[in-house]
Amino acid sequence: MRSNIISIILVGGVCIWIPLLSAFFMCTITHNTSTIAHALNDASATNTNALPRRLRKRNTLVLQQGGRRLGKGKGSSSSSYKAALLPKSPKCGKSSSSRSRHHAYSGKSKGSFYSHKSSKGSSSYDDCSEDQTTLSPTATTTSSPTTLLTTAESVSPSIATVPTPSPTRYCASVQGREEDIATMTSSVVGSGNIVPGTPEGDALNWILNIDNTNTCNDGGIALLERFVLALFFYKTGGESWLNSNGWLSLSNQCTWFGIDCGTDGRVDTISLNQNNLSGEIPDALSNLEQLSVLKLFDNALEGTVPTSLYQLSNLAFLDMEANNLSGNLFDAAVFNATSLVRFRASFNQFAGTTIPSDIGRLTSLQQLWIADCGLVGSIPVEINQLVELNDFFAYNNSLTGAIPDDLSMLRNLRRLDLSHNDLTGTLPASMGLLLSLEKIVLSGNSLTGSMPSTIGNLQLMTDLLLDHNSMSQSLPHDFDFLVSLQSLNLEDNAFTGRLPDYTSWEDLRFININNNRFNGTILPSLFAKQGLEYVYFANNTLTGSIPTNYGNASSLIDLWINGNQLTGTIPSVSSSDFPSITEILLNDNALSGDVPDSLCDKRNSTLVDEYLEDFGTLHADCLPPFGSDVPNNPCPIGCCTNCFVGK
């Protein structure tokens, strides 16, 4: 009986204390949970020190190499995401873009008249949105997110934890995303600390605390590309760009200004021409593995070109013209970029760079634009291996030696500009084999010898500019066969003999033969060309009279025929003649008779009619020669702007 009573007491006591103990422990757990949640919320505004000590380690991003989500970086496991195949999606994007520029020379008595314009096509993509699993509400878009990195020693900011339902996948959890970001950043910028306030620190802060991309859908491709673009933004002064629409927003990166993507949703184009970029081109761009087009023309970028760019297997179009880049333009790494089709590096500061023989390895090149960037040395014969080349621009450098005869191997070459260098030798006769040539610009060198007769083979030639050289002898008759010629500049050479027969040059608009020794007469067919704008025949030994139809050239702007041995009178003009004229130089000839009143009336009419071109210059021999009171060409007061004695 006694034992039964004891048993009842024990059982009863247990039944009484168990509910009491349960209530006590529930209160304790509730209190701790509230404390943890409060600490996590505080951490979003301060740092990990606000967390209880036992929580700091798991809520702090530890930047170290390695990881298990991204298939890139030391220590990573590619098998972790074998099932996370990249989705096939429509083209991402939002805008069309186009760009044009001019490489140009223009001038009258001393300059070359030359212009080439390169225009890129435009492309447009349909908008698309990123399919992602997120743990937090969409954040407010900011171009310069507030950094949560608070000390120079610490590079492990806390994530602002937002209470959410339990994630269904580890990659979408806070801790999983942190680990993925740690792996990704170490693969892009290396292991070790990232200092707050640097471009790397700002990019990390954005991807960690503002962006919401994770690795769940594509194995980390979008996360990686968004971090690289954020780093590019901060490295190149993105806050001062002229246009940064969409950048560092939560929208798909394919919709950001200047960014285009392929059908797989990966970045393949960065086009930020004339957008006020500064700083250096980040090495991290080499992580955009599908990048094929990088256009940074006319910005203020400096430093060297990252050699890692040339490891991009799809890179086809690299345009970095008109910046302040320096170093060795043709680093050995360049010649690994055999996919390059357009290489534009003009107007930079690659002082002392030579063109190496390895240039012949870039066999896909169609454009080689390396003008005005400090090049020295000779043009290697291996240039002839660039059989796809359309454009070769290397003007305004200090290149020496002869023009390679083997240039004739470039059967697709359309435009050649080697002007304003120190080239010597003759114009190779083999150039007559380049039947696709449209422009030859060799002005301002030290070329000698005669014009090869093979030049007449170039039926597509529109621009031939050989001014300011030392070429001589007469032009071959085959020269007359350049039926497509629009611009001819032979100024400041020593050519002799007859003028070319330009009768069949129907599209001629510019001709400059100033300061040579040409003889013969001016053919009336010259002024029958309605597109003719500039005629510079000064300082030769031309004879005969001025064609009476010279006023019929309706587009003519300048007519310089001074300094010759022309005879006869100055022809009168009608009120409809010379509608576009601005300058006529008739002085230093052997002309007779007065300057026609009709020519003076034409000049005076432009001074009072604001809708007409300003006929501002008229030179004639209106001063009397020595020992005489009568000038060769008396000119009414207020008509001629300058008077000479004449011959």
Biggest β-sheet, characterized?
A: 17 strands, mixed
- N-to-C span: 155 Å
Task: State the total count of DSSP E strands.
Answer: 28
The protein's oligomeric status is single chain
- What overall geometry do the principal axes of the alpha carbons give? elongated
Helix content: 10-25%
Task: Give the structural class.
Answer: alpha/beta
Roughly what fraction of the amino acids lie in strands?
A: 5-15%
Tell me about this structure.
The chain is α/β, with parallel strands linked by helices. The protein is 15% helix and 15% strand. It has six helices and 28 strands. Strand 3 (259-261) and strand 4 form a beta hairpin. Helix 3 (174-189) runs antiparallel to helix 4, helix 3 (174-189) packs across helix 5 (221-235) and helix 4 packs antiparallel against helix 5. The longest helix is centred in the N-terminal third of the chain and has 42 residues, at 2-43.
Sequence-ordered SSE layout with sheet pairings:
Elements (H helix, E strand, L loop, with lengths): L1 H42 L9 H4 L43 E6 L8 E6 L54 H16 L9 H11 L11 H15 L23 E3 L5 E5 L6 E3 L12 E3 L4 E4 L13 E3 L4 E2 L16 E3 L22 E3 L6 E3 L12 E3 L4 E5 L12 E3 L4 E3 L14 E3 L21 E3 L6 E3 L12 E3 L4 E5 L11 E3 L4 E3 L14 E3 L21 E3 L22 E3 L11 H12 L8 E4 L21 E2 L4
Parallel strand pairs: 4-6, 5-7, 6-8, 7-9, 8-10, 10-11, 11-13, 12-14, 13-15, 14-16, 15-17, 17-18, 18-20, 19-21, 20-22, 21-23, 22-24, 24-25, 25-26, 26-27, 27-28
Antiparallel strand pairs: 1-2, 3-4
